[in-house]
Amino acid sequence: MAEFINQDRVLAMSAAPESSFNTIVESAAGLMGIVTTGQGFTSPMLDKINEQGKLGSGDEFTRNIRNDYWQQPTGDLGDDLDFKVAPILLRRAAGGTATPTEVVATECFDHDFTLQSKAAGRQLPSTTFWDVVGGDEWGYAGGVVDQFVMQFQTGQPPKYSASIMTSGFHKALSAVSPTLTLPEPQDLEYAYSADILLELNDGSLLNVSERIRSLTFTLRNNHRQNDRRPGDSPLVANDYSKGAYVKRCLRGDRECSVEYTLLGDENKREYLAMLNNTAITGFRILARGPRIGTGSPARYNELEISLPKVKVMEAARGNDGNDVTRAIRIMALKGAGQNYVNFRVRNRMSTLS
User: What pLDDT does residue 1 have?
Assistant: First the structure.
């Protein structure tokens, strides 16, 4: 009997969002292979209802167990920060539409996007994921990015992680016809450890890149799990005894936070901004990777996160070994006529969906 290790698993995701929520993508042409340092996805599981604790049978043991809903499998994905998979997951976490700009014909593109508007609804773009090993081979529909995190620790490559929630609708690989062979992961271009920019404006431009010890950007969508309603569909047509699944996965209150630690200096500008409740503008994080093409001026893979208006909530003194540090937490504000947060990706992809 064959046994497997985690590295035997094959992972893939839909290259574009599902055409509609829970419309599973099951063609190799619509999928892209991915790698992860996360744990992948949990296996499909059913909620079971029993008669334990009921009176009248003459004893305390249940005589019946029945199926109810399929639970919503979750997944943890992550890797060093790249300029293809990570931007796709960030774009789907934000929702809305990315506006592409051709920087260099056919080889270099900018993609600008922000958070999906309230008018566009609370359903963010959904993704199909496949997680296959041995006979435990499943496709999961209705996958939404509940949380996206970008992290940097000095001396290490920037990383990202994405927490995924699916709907409970799933399909066995063996049930796909014609036979589906998942695509292999593509070669990726990754961000450089030494090419990270952090700057802000508290009255004048301040570049603190050389003082960064750590940085964490987090976007949370706080999706409502188990949003079960009459009219949800059974996994097997017309047979609710085989379990039902949810037909929606709506976001809740969105949160966007940045925490970073700097080497301390004599100016204490971050601490003074906290004391004086100073409105900071132009807060910008930029991660850069390999050069795109050979043209002039030089252009590079980039992922930029900008917060038009923030305030410092904490600026606590600490230490890192023998170095004095300042641990800072900021909160983004919604300014008049401004987006809450803006994203820009520069890469080789003509579309970012």
Answer: 64
Alpha helices in the chain (DSSP H): 85-94, 269-275
Amino acid at 9: R
Nearest alpha-carbon partner for 160 in 343, 10, 349? 343
* pLDDT > 70: percent of the chain: 100
Written as one string, the DSSP assignment of 188-215 is --B--TT-EEEEEESSSEEE-GGGEEEE
Q: Are 165 and 144 in contact (CB under 8 A)?
A: yes
d(CA 100, CA 1): 51
Token pair for 74: 């979750």
Lowest mean pLDDT among 28-37, 45-54, 210-219: 45-54
The string over 144-183, giving b where at least 16 C-beta atoms fall within 10 Å of a residue's C-beta and e elsewhere, is bbbbbbbbbeeeebbbbbbbbbbbbbbbebeebeeebebb
DSSP conformation class of 94: H
Q: Pick from 105, 91, 85: which is nearest to 31 by CA?
A: 85
